Amino acid sequence: MHKRATAASADGVPQLGRIYEIPPRQGRAVHLARGQTLTIINSRGTQVCDFWAFSRVDRREYLSMEHLHASLSRITPMEGDTLVTNRRQPILVFLEDTSPGVHDTVIAACDPPRYRQLGIDGFHDSCAANLQMAMQAIGENTDEIPSPFNVWMNTPVRADGTIEWLPPVSKPGDWVRFRAEMDCIAVMSACPQDLIPINGQDAAPAELHFRVDAR
């Protein structure tokens, strides 16, 4: 890997109630016990968070956007929705959202081939790499790169089927909160995309913050 992976703690178990930073372009992974809540804060209001969750029992079971679409009969989850795995089991409840509720569940995580397509030669941070490094930093691993829940990502689909790449409509300090419905590992990436304006009009990746609280 090109850069070091860091973590909130060596074993991925967070200190409850403490606010942790996810620096720009980096990722973090944390263990969640069933019933605990995870709050992700869009500190500057312009940053997309690629978000995943994996069963602690079997990493091959994970939060699945494709199965979520069928479960909800809609593209974007809302407050109160239960989010399911690729085995159609509840893994999280989307408890609260202080933003306007614009998120994406269609776009894959950015990765090295994506940046090559965008004209980048050589290394560029990516959410796919952040996922793997964040897991490794807490002694875990996954061969899967599931489609993420792209929190605050604003990619509306036009009437002709094409996708727009727009800045988030969230404001500084907006947050989302999830409750774990099974013991799981949550992974968050402060998306490093700086070639199109999904991380604000200036395409400048920024930090995120998160906290875990008791049941």
Task: Please give a structural write-up.
The chain is α+β, with helices and mostly antiparallel strands. It has a domain at 1-9 and 50-178 and 191-199. Helices cover 12% and strands 26% of the residues. The chain contains three helices and ten strands; from the N terminus they run E-E-E-E-H-E-E-H-H-E-E-E-E. It has helices at 65-72, 112-117, 127-137; strands spanning 20-22, 27-32, 37-42, 49-55, 82-84, 90-97, 149-151, 174-180, 184-190, 208-213. The strands form two sheets. It has a six-stranded antiparallel beta sheet, with helices on one face. It has a four-stranded antiparallel beta sheet with strand order 2-9-4-7, with helices on one face. Strand 5 (82-84) and strand 6 form a beta hairpin. The longest helix is centred in the middle third of the chain and has 11 residues, at 127-137. The model has no long low-confidence stretch (mean pLDDT 95).
